[in-house]
Each structure stands twice: as structure tokens, then as C-alpha cells.
């Protein structure tokens, strides 16, 4: 069996390495579902289809000029558009790799094949619980069954696949069953997303998982990841939407695998550099407006149909996010993990407290966790 150090010898890109951001691109705001936590407040039906293909190509040229190399096509439901393949081919010709974020129900064998032929390399499919709950929650009959079929259809044509779940108090008990299901069905990646208060999810703050249970669920998630690594399973686990997961992983590894493995994790977290909204990731919405990330819907700094990306990202909101460590207040400002979290999601702070720079209300670390001797000093001694 691999050593603990080998199990966790992963790497992350430098935050300030100058690379262009990953772009989450909402190519439509229409959807065939009505999920309560939809960050884009997508409209059921085709009333918010999106920009015409020529405008999408104009935005694609802007992204190419900015050096963007990875785009995630999202929505709404992007597969409601019949021209996604043509857009993907256009982007591929410009050396931009396309990934797909979808609910999976339109991923027929034929559609999966055409998407693969267009150059889409990955399909991430959202599932929020076991069948009865998932179908009620997402507002479409047989959504669960059709999502799994979509994953299988993508796998059969050679696309890499992911299963995505957004964690809430209503579905937290479904997590372990979905993890088992993902491995059984040969999924490449399971993405566990914390609830971020954007779009319709602004009205779901009371449904967020409370701190104690969140910590419990995340520790179980890490334990499952360790088991998968030791068994050399093909399923990889990823979490997002809460940068407190980085310090929690560091503590988990330190407890279960010792100082050497924990030091590897700590260095990787430093390279990753914490939340990178507006830096390593941005969002382009269905009208071409640019946001710091896909959850940040209230403010746009410019539109790619009118301005180059570099000019948009030089504007005040993006400039402030690049120096957020100096602007944070409260628990975030005094947290020993500031360098590897950077205050997590500012959208939640804004939605819950009215200030971009206040506390992230979904931080589940305790006062004892954040106030101990500086982790950076501890690791510097090694």
C-alpha cells in the first residue's frame, strides 16, 4: 500500500501565477428543472434561451484573447440549446477545453456522442439525493433515473464523468448512499458542493447544514476519500463552496495519517491559495456579463460583448478581491487559516450580513480551531 505521504502528494496551481481564469459560462438561463438552490435563478422553459450563437462566438474570441484555456458550459440547462456542439467546436479551434455542467436528463446516447465529437471532455451531472427526494426537489419526474442514464451514456462514448451534490439539511443523510452509487456506476469524480447563497438559494439560508453537522459530514467525506485511495478506486472526491474544507482536511490528515502527510497537504493548500473568485475563476452569465464566480449574481463589472476581459477584471470589485486578506473583518480576519481560506465565499457574507468583508456564516470551524498557534508557523518549523 502507498505511504500516507504518497496518498496526499497532490499539487495545485499558484494563485498569483498569472494564468487566465477558468470560466463558468451560463450559455442559457432556461432549464427543464426548478431546483430551489439554483444559483442562476433559471427559468423553466425557453423564455431565457440566451444569446445567439454569433454573440457566443464573439465572447469566445474575447476569452481566447485573454488566454482562457478551460470553459465550463452551464446554465440553466445548457443542453436545451441545440448549438452547444457548434460552440464547443469553435472554442476547441481556439485551444479552449470545454467541460459540461448539466442535469443529465438530455444526455441521450446520440447527444453524448455528438458532444464528445465536438470536443467536450467531461460531463458533470447534478443529483441531489436518492430518487424520490431528488425528483421532488429538482422538480422533474424520473430525473434521478435519467441523470444516471446520462452519466452512463457519457461514459460509454469515452467522456469523463462527474456526479455533483449540493449539501443542505434536507439531503445530508443521502450523501453516503450517493457516494456508494457513484463508485458502483464508475463515475470518475464526485463533487460535494456546500450551499452558497446566490440566486434562489438566497432564500435557503435556514436550510444550510449547521456547523456541527457540517463538520461531521465533511469528516465522513474525507474518511471515504481515504478509503477510496487505499483501495485504489477510480472515484475521486472533490468538495467546493466552502474553503473551510481545506483547514478541515489538514486537521483530518494530521490526526489520521500524521505530521508528514499533513505537511504535504498544508503546502498544497498554500499553493492553492484559498478562495479565488474573481482571480482563478470567473463567471460569464447568459447575457455576457462577468461576475467573480457563478454564485455572485448581484454585481457585474462589465459585459464581454462590449469590453475585453482584462479591462473588466481591472475594475474595483476584482481589484478588491485580489487584496481581500487586508479587507476582511471579524473571525475571518483573525483566523489562523486566512492564508489557505481567504475568507471563503464573500457572496454568503454579503447575503447574510450585508457586507462583502464580514464573516462567512457557513464556516464550521470552531473558535478553538481558528485561534490556535498559527498553522503557517507550525509548518514553517518542519
UniProtKB/TrEMBL annotation:
Matches recorded under SUPFAM superfamilies: Radical SAM enzymes
Radical SAM core domain mapped to chain residues: 17-231
GO BP terms: heme biosynthetic process
Keyword 4Fe-4S annotated: yes
Pfam families: Radical_SAM
Residue ranges of the TM segments: none
Entry cofactors: [4Fe-4S] cluster
Keyword Iron tagged: yes
InterPro entries: Aldolase_TIM (IPR013785), Elp3/MiaA/NifB-like_rSAM (IPR006638), PqqE-like (IPR017200), Radical_SAM_PqqE_MftC-like (IPR050377), rSAM (IPR007197), rSAM_sf (IPR058240)
Protein name, per record: Radical SAM domain protein
Naturally occurring in which organism (per UniProt): Leptonema illini DSM 21528
Amino acid at each position: 500500500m502507498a505511504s500516507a505521504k504518497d496518498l496526499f502528494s497532490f499539487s495545485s496551481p499558484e494563485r498569483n501565477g498569472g494564468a487566465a481564469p477558468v470560466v463558468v459560462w451560463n450559455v442559457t438561463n432556461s432549464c427543464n428543472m426548478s431546483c430551489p438552490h439554483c444559483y442562476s435563478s433559471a427559468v423553466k422553459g425557453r423564455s431565457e434561451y440566451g444569446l445567439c450563437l454569433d454573440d457566443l462566438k464573439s465572447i469566445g474570441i474575447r476569452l481566447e484573447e485573454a488566454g482562457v484555456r478551460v470553459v465550463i458550459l452551464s446554465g440553466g440547462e445548457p443542453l436545451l440549446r441545440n448549438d452547444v456542439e457548434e460552440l464547443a467546436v469553435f472554442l476547441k479551434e481556439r485551444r479552449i477545453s470545454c467541460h459540461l455542467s448539466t442535469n443529465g436528463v438530455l444526455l441521450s446516447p446520440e447527444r453524448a456522442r455528438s458532444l464528445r465529437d465536438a470536443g467536450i471532455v467531461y460531463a458533470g451531472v447534478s443529483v441531489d439525493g436518492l430518487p424520490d427526494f431528488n425528483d421532488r426537489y429538482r422538480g422533474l419526474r424520473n430525473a434521478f433515473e435519467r441523470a444516471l442514464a446520462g452519466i452512463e451514456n457519457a461514459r460509454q462514448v469515452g467522456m469523463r464523468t462527474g456526479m455533483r451534490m449540493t449539501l443542505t439539511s434536507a439531503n445530508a443523510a443521502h450523501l453516503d448512499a450517493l457516494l456508494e452509487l457513484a463508485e458502483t456506476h464508475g463515475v470518475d469524480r464526485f463533487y460535494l458542493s456546500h450551499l452558497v447563497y446566490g440566486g434562489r438559494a438566497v432564500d435557503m439560508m435556514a436550510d444550510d447544514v449547521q456547523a456541527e453537522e457540517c463538520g461531521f459530514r465533511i469528516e465522513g467525506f474525507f474518511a471515504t476519500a481515504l478509503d477510496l485511495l487505499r483501495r485504489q478506486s477510480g472515484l475521486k472526491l472533490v468538495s467546493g463552496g466552502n474553503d473551510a474544507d481545506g483547514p478541515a482536511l489538514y486537521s483530518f490528515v494530521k490526526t489520521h495519517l500524521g505530521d508528514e502527510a499533513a505537511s504535504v497537504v498544508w503546502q498544497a493548500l498554500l499553493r492553492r491559495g484559498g478562495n479565488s473568485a474573481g482571480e482563478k475563476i470567473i463567471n460569464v452569465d447568459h447575457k455576457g456579463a462577468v461576475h467573480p464566480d457563478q454564485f455572485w449574481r448581484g454585481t457585474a463589472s462589465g459585459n464581454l460583448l462590449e469590453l475585453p476581459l482584462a479591462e473588466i477584471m481591472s475594475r474595483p470589485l476584482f481589484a478588491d478581491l485580489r487584496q481581500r486578506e487586508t479587507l476582511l473583518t471579524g473571525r475571518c480576519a483573525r483566523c489562523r487559516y486566512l492564508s489557505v481560506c481567504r475568507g471563503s465565499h464573500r457572496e454568503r457574507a454579503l447575503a447574510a450580513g450585508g457586507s462583502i468583508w464580514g464573516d462567512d456564516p457557513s464556516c464550521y470551524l470552531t473558535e478553538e480551531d481558528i485561534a490556535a498557534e498559527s498553522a503557517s508557523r507550525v509548518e514553517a518549523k518542519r
